[in-house]
Amino acid sequence: MGVTKEQVESSLTSKLNPAHLEVIDTSGGCGASFTIEVVSEKFEGKRLLERHRVVNTALEEEMKQIHALSIKKALTPEQWKQQQESEKPKPAA
Amino acid sequence: SFRCSAALTPELKNTLDKVVTSHKVVLFMKGTRDFPQCGFSNTVVQILKSLNVPFETINILENELLRQGLKEYSSWPTFPQLYVEGEFFGGCDITVEAYKTGELQELLEKAMCS
Question: What is the reported pTM?
Answer without folding.
Answer: 0.85
